[in-house]
Design goal:
single chain, alpha/beta, Rossmann fold, 2 domains, 6-stranded parallel β-sheet, 3-stranded parallel β-sheet, 10 helices, 11 strands, about 20% strand
């Protein structure tokens, strides 16, 4: 069993980006500028956005945090997005999800300029990704591809099973793993809450990518020997023995599943750090395209 170490790999990527930014500065060029919009005071969202701002500082990006109250109306948020779209100083920006119930998330994501959509959520970018055109790949799937690539995990001709069909991870992942090229060229089965006999399917998989958000869903008896397991799930599970009162748990019963795998991502320290690294990479791409 070999760990797909997202923490180490993401640090390598940040070092590479920092070197690119240092060259830009030396040439007197404008450095990439990432903005993040957060509505409300959701603890997990604030923590996540804070880590994105710190990551920008580390690689030498400029960053802007736009924090709006929970009572912000849809019209007010759309006005703010229009302001960011037309601000030439900002290369890319993200809208932190989830949004409060009074705001239509789809309408908001549609309002983002596709050339600044470094999250890769706009339908134009999603469509380009599906057609194998140059675009922004959503950061979490992009991070998974990068891990498979850097660890040389063979994907061609393999059977990949994706568990979960969200627009953020499951669905794009199923498209990307079936595309021509590397990582890709695998035969993909997309499973979800209505899939029957899921163990029968997962036990035939060479690669399993699970993004359900159900702690320890994937058990050792559900996989075959030497499978590759990518765990995207992150859930806070109450634990009175833990210092914070909870532990972070993935979708995979790591202790038992890891004994059967050839490669596996840990939680935490696997896919999570890669998501932020690839968001930075998308922002660098956005800057280069806007040159």
């Amino acid at each position: 069993m070999k760990l797909l170490d997202g923490k180490k790999t993401s640090n390598d990527i940040k070092d590479e980006i920092a070197a690119e930014v240092a060259k830009m500065k030396a040439n007197g060029e404008k450095v990439p500028h990432l903005a993040a919009v957060i509505v409300g005071n959701d603890g997990a969202s604030l923590t996540y956005v804070g880590s994105k701002v710190r990551a920008c500082e580390r690689v030498g990006f400029e960053s802007t945090l736009v924090q709006l109250p929970n009572t912000t109306s849809e019209v007010e948020l759309l006005d703010k997005i229009e302001e960011l779209n037309s601000n030439d100083d900002i290369d890319g920006f993200i809208i932190q999800l989830p949004l409060p119930p009074q705001i239509d998330t789809q309408k908001v994501l549609m309002a983002v300029d596709p050339s600044k959509d470094v999250d890769g959520f706009h339908p134009e970018n999603f469509g380009k990704m599906a057609l194998d055109m140059s675009t922004f790949i959503p950061a979490t799937p992009f991070g998974i591809l990068e891990l498979l690539d850097r660890y040389g995990v063979e994907t061609q001709g393999k059977h990949t099973v994706v568990i979960g069909r969200s627009h953020i991870v499951g669905r794009p992942m199923s498209i990307l793993m079936g595309r021509k090229g590397f990582p890709g060229n695998s035969t993909v089965t997309l499973t979800h809450s209505h899939t029957k006999n899921i163990t029968q399917i997962t036990s035939q998989a060479d690669i399993i990518i699970t993004a359900l958000g159900r702690p320890k869903f994937l058990k050792a008896e559900m996989i075959k020997d030497d499978a590759v397991v990518i765990d995207v799930g992150i859930t806070r599970v109450p634990d009175e023995n833990a210092k914070r009162g909870y532990v972070i748990t993935g979708d995979v019963d790591f202790e038992n599943v890891s004994k059967k795998t050839s490669y596996i991502t840990p939680v935490p320290g696997g896919v999570g750090p890669m998501t932020i690294a690839m968001l930075l990479k998308n922002t660098l791409l956005a800057r280069e395209r806007r040159r």
